[in-house]
Amino acid sequence: MVATADLVAVVLGTAVGAATVGPVAALTVGITTIVSILVSRRHAWRFAPSVLTDLPSTALIVAIPTGLSAAVLAPLLHVAPHAAIVTGLVTLALLVVARSTVFAAVRRRRNDGRDQLRALVVGCDDTGVRLGQTFTHQLNYGVHVVGYVDDDRPLLADLGAKLGSVEALPQLVREHDVDLVLVGFGAHSDDKVVDAIRDLGASPVEVYVVPRMYELHQMHHHNQASELIDGIPLARLRRPAYRTASWRLKRVIDVVVSGVALLVAAPALAVIAVAVRRETGPGIIFKQERIGLNGEPFTLFKFRSLQLAAGEGDVRWSIDTDTRLGPVGKFIRASSLDELPQLVNVLKGDMSLVGPRPERPYFVERFNETIPGYRYRHRVPVGLTGYAAVHGLRGDTSIHQRAHFDNLYAESWSLWLDLKIAAWTVRQLIPRRSPEANLPVPAPPTMDDIEQLDSETVQLPYIAPRTRVDDTTGGSERTVIIRRSA
């Protein structure tokens, strides 16, 4: 209803502008406004739709196309700037009227018991109970509370429909055809809730969370992703990356970039292949099973840097310090040139340019059992480089931190984040030399200095030349003890 009303308002505004001030400016403003509305998520479901709340964003969506048309189109096509401005003002007025009408209809339908979304309240402390009772008694919010979820809390007995523990949340969402999950506070731990929400996977359910210290919630932060229900803010979590429209572009970019990169890097690939063949013998490409998207295995390609015994590479963590590495092997590993054949994996669809680094089945099985959240990193395709890698988490580094950064990437993904990670990776590949600090070295005490002292024993500070000084501990600063002879 809202999307249709917006479209009708913009079309009518464009028609009025075309009839009164000219078709060129009116069509430009109308088309660009429709595009802006489509990409702004203005049609997302909300508890309490409000024209006044939407007014700043509505004005901005119309003002930007109108301003650009007046500033750019008018000089190019010799069109009067006021033509775009008139169209914009008419369109804005019609959008406000259309939304006012539709929102009134939405509230009326909800109060009649229609258009009610089914919700689960996770957490049964005072906040969760208050939310549940508010939605039960105020139908205008459009929420029907199916039940409450918590871990072994006696209060559940007084709330009516107790559905189960937090760990059972994904199953309960499917069984009760739930549309909304409202996460408050209760006996459950945050870790359990995080895992349960991640396990929802590709489910179309929307998740809202009560922020910590919500009493400090500021009204000017109220927006389409955060709403206030009976004084309690609910922040909507972003949809998983693989449920967004821009996610499809990721694969297109992978194919184009990897294909072009393979063509451009062909001479370098040939040179490296010859060097590897001369140092390690036959078999210049090292093939190994790795775990990719959704835990599926695939064969990863790398330039061979070392001849390993059969099965040694499957269970050995790192070979960076192996004495069998030759000059070529050390160089291609240090410069990451050994990973260039993985562009073929990207082209095939086994990997992406950016994503969590793929690991071997032997280690994945053990990390899944011992590292919290490790299994969730496989929600997105593995990659040549990733968010953890550009933060220095490669080689012999913390697996806990890697899993944390990989999950941050999966939950925060955007095309812009991929671009930033690619730029950070290029910057890290460029060797940089850290300049050494030139510290002033005080001269050692002379005999004249000593003769002027009356005390039997004196202490003079002294910093040894060619020695770094540690910023936090004082490092090599020491005290020279000088004693007078009898």
Distance between the termini: 103 Å
Mean pLDDT: 80
C-alpha Rg, in Å? Answer: 32 Å
Q: What count of domains describes the coordinates?
A: 4
Estimate the global geometry from the Cα principal axes.
flat
Describe it for me?
This protein has helices spanning 2-20, 23-39, 51-77, 81-111, 126-137, 169-175, 190-198, 247-264, 266-280, 312-315, 327-334, 342-348, 361-370, 387-390, 399-412, 415-429, 447-451; strands at 117-122, 143-149, 162-164, 180-183, 206-209, 226-229, 232-236, 285-291, 297-303, 352-354, 383-385, 457-462, 478-483. By secondary structure, it is α/β, with parallel strands linked by helices. The chain has four domains: 2-111, no CATH class; 117-237, NAD(P)-binding Rossmann-like Domain (Rossmann fold), CATH 3.40.50.720; 247-429, no CATH class; 447-483, no CATH class. The strands form four sheets. It has a seven-stranded mixed β-sheet with strand order 3-2-1-4-5-7-6, with helices on both faces. Strand 6 and strand 7 (232-236) form a beta hairpin. Helix 1 packs antiparallel against helix 2 (23-39), helix 8 packs across helix 12 (342-348) and helix 9 runs antiparallel to helix 11. The longest helix has 31 residues, at 81-111.
